[in-house]
Design a protein that fits this description.
A: 2 domains, 4-stranded parallel sheet, 10% strand, B: alpha/beta, 5 domains, 18 helices, 34 strands, globular
Chain lengths: 290, 658
Amino acid sequence: MVKLGYFPGCSLSSTAKEYDISTRIVCEDLGIELVEIPHWVCCGATSAHITSDIAANALPAKTLIWAEKNNIPITSPCSACFSRLAIAHHTMATDEEMRKDVGEVVGEEYHGGAKVLHLARVFYETYGLEALKAKVKKPLKGLKVASYYGCLMTRPPEVCDFDRIENPMFMDKTVQALGAETVKWGYKTECCGAAFSLTKKEAVLKLTGDILSDAKECGADVIVVACPLCHANLDSRQREIERKSGKKIGLPIIYISQMIGLALGYNALDMAFKKHFVDPVKVLKEKGIL
Amino acid sequence: MARIGVFVCHCGTNIAGVVDVKRVAEYALTLPGVKYAIDYKYMCSDPGQNAIIEAVKEHKLDRIVVTACSPRMHEGTFRKAAERSGINQYMSEMANVREHDSWVHSDDKEAATLKAMKLMEMSVAKVRRSEALSKMYATVEKRALVIGGGIAGIQAALDIAEAGHKVVIVEKDPSIGGRMAQLDKTFPTLDCSACILTPKMVAASQHPNIELRVYSEVVEVNGYVGNFDIKIKKKASSVDNKKCISCGVCTLKCPSKRAQSEFDEKIAPRKAIYTPFPQAVPNKPVIDREACTFFLTGKCRICEKVCPTQAIDFNQQDEVVTEKFGAVVLATGFDIFDSNVYGEYGYGEYKDVVTSLQFERLINSSGPTEGHVVRLSDKKEPKNLVWIQCVGSRDESKGRPYCSRVCCMYTAKQAMLMKEHYPEVNCYVFYIDIRAAGKNYEEFVQKAQNEYGVIYLRGRVSKIYEKKDKLIVRGADTLSGSQVEIVADMVVLANGLEPRKDAKSLAQLFHVSYDQYGFFTELHPKLGPVETAIAGVFVAGACQACKDIPDTVAQAGAAASKVLGLFSKEKMEVEPLIAKVDPLVCSGCETCYNVCPYSAIEMEDREVSRGNLKHVAKVLDSVCKGCGACVGACYSKAVDLKGFSERQVYDQIETVTQ
């Protein structure tokens, strides 16, 4: 039995509700106990860490202190939340002055005892691929998947502690364990444009467009992601990109938790696919998965 | 009572700009035994030295202290001045108030002056108990050892041998030749590397004064300048070189396919019994026991059956011999930087991303493809090639902040050769800066760009990824300020240079210092470029710092001339600063005998006074290095170090702690 502190973050209660739903269902099925961190606060992504160092570390500190006190590793399904929590932990573990300053702001001191995991890594390492394989009821045979990690899941390397920064494989291997096939492609860790979606849409359309078209060219049926912001850009901007380029892409973007859910035998309703702009149901039906 | 003279040097403003030298000299006069003290602008100048000599004569001084720079700079100068003035040269001391004081405490002049006074006072305390010592002499074994059989080692050996002295070259590979033998053409003349190297290899092998020891390594070093005792291990080659006629049948018939050729940078297989390349010197095969079917399974023995002279000897053992040498030249060369460190370039993952040395083997007509440049993945000829410079150079994030000095040049060379062989291909080079500082170097790079049409892009490559059978090279062109993407068939990494993996352990054998990367440290960056801090050990070539062939050959010649300078003397002066045992006090416990790292202590039964036969320690004068380990270890205080006696050192400690 794996017990984890769950930090859903703001996106999972709004634009990425289906990520939250599928994560909770899948974890329950697998026997991963998620304890939602009581009174969790904003991780500080983007607005805090580009304006104030102290705010960037103080906001995640509350969560880290809870994890340290209760001695439970914490996980976040959102790459930005994961990144903020992990970087704050790393900063305070290496910068004594910052740790003290944050302690003053928050009112309690953090001693560096928390463990922060990305949800995608929980399935791969904490739960383990062998255990996952044993749980598969409906192998995702014939489905070609491009695994998209985005910029924050492996970077910065000293914080994320991954062996292959440019060409990570853990999500590929997780998807393979579910019975699907993964494609070789070059945009695994490229930037999707993230929050610039709101301020510099043109840049995001270019970046996201490149990612989508490379996945398509490399023969993917779907793209698997583990970040609500990547999902938002790849999914909701897709039609606009198609209109602009005049080329049909039609690539459903599926969360890693939804992917596991499908292999565990859940249906489109359980996985809340109706929340997606690019409907995955058609492709999945064609492949005989739904 | 001692009559001491103190001479305080200004060193221009180097010392006097920080330290109040007048005060130091005045303070000296208050110390017991000091009869004379002056300060002077440059003590090391002729008038400065003459001032010392005159003062000694006029004031009947019997010992001197020079308060100046590091003894590494001028100890010899002032010892000679002491001798010229008529006192024993070991009755002089230096107090280092420049490197140890004025240069590092320029922010606090008062404290620096006080420190200078203390340092001077310590030297006065020491010199007060100095004793006259006489120089010792040692014989010089006029035989040199050169470690490494690349162009540096070959050149140094030839120069020493030509002057009439015996030289042994130890090479760990089965042939001499080194990195230069792997190269195709050389910059900036585009002449064939093998054509200029092989005559030197042959000359070395046939020279009556040169002995080649290939497939061998140095495993232990004892002794000192003029008298090194060095253990050399000859690895078992499993071939009797006396019987072998170099016919090559064994290699031809060997069925093993396990090994990859080191000489071809692992892009081609090699047999288990092999000579690394056709022009190998000596041209005798060796058996790689890790790849040999017989050594692995106990069956095969095909080479033994086909050998016409029964030269195969599976029972051969490693042999270790100890030999005497007077001087050593370290010429171990370089490795190229590990491309795997750059994950974003995908070396190892994408077959068509190759190292610069692999490219040399591909374009070399004696290489595995006979000079046809093909992709390693599908053996097709590439149409678009990209070179990435500074892979493991000038990159602090990868721990290599230094410039490797040769990559700009060999990149231009490789691109030009490619254009010469295949005029229709496109060659792109990503660079940070072009560093072509050498005779005809800049012109060479210009020629690559202007005459050969090699396209230079100023910027770094951020990432390479595979798309179908192409490599997409994405980088920045900082001159136009845009992102560029090149669809390439092949990418060549211009790897930087680093020392051989085992350079550090070799340096440790000789007690030669090395920098954080493993490059051997020369005695002085400007004035001692081929010497090391260990007398009699010299460096040549890329083991000391990144350098190209012309510089390597020049340094090898310089190292050889230093060896010859040493060999020109019949006897060599050595410092008499060694240990001495008082046999009357010695209890014969053998503690010193056990701690001595140089085996310089012998135990003997000796009549120390009439009728009193004792088991006592004895120092072998010519072996003792004066390290002082025995002095510290002796329970009965029977051992002391000449020139650094316990009383001298304790007096210094008392002075400084008062």
